[in-house]
Amino acid sequence: MPLHTELWFPSVVWSGIVHWPNNDGIKSFAYETMEKDAGRHISNCGGWQSKDILANESIHIDSFVTSLNKEIAECVTQTGLPQLAIQNIWINVNPKGAYNKLHDHAGSVLSGVYYVDAEEGQGNFNIERSDNAQYFLPENPDKLTYFTATATSYKAKTGALYVFPSWLKHSVGANQIDKDRISISFNYGVK
Residue 130 pLDDT > 90, yes or no? Predict the structure, then answer.
């Protein structure tokens, strides 16, 4: 009789292409805000990162959050988490050469990124294991699986939404083309 398989402490990533955001409106808001505000530098290297965007600051961001709340509610239901609320949301504009260094989002439960304007060659969204498995797993496993992988990446693509546990270490590769990569990042925490 085979052993029963149980998955403890899985690293869940939700991904998909969504069509509900008004990308043109968000993009305009990003550039307008960039002209008025120097922004901040937390994980962004060579690009611009807005300060937290507040409710009623942009109808396009408010609409985005309303739809995003429904997606997050589904993630919460699947995982058995308590109800979560948005903690903060901001915009990233990364020109050629800009990237986001490896980091996590301490103080929240779920985090994510949505690509307002992005395409192949603008840097993938990367996730790395943080359980030290790389010191225990064979260097060249027979088969790369969810169990044996120590990192993965997702393409930067307009409309792509990625949601993940806030403790997962992640980064975004350098933009390799002469067009800004524009994304929205966000955190959700316990109400």
Answer: no
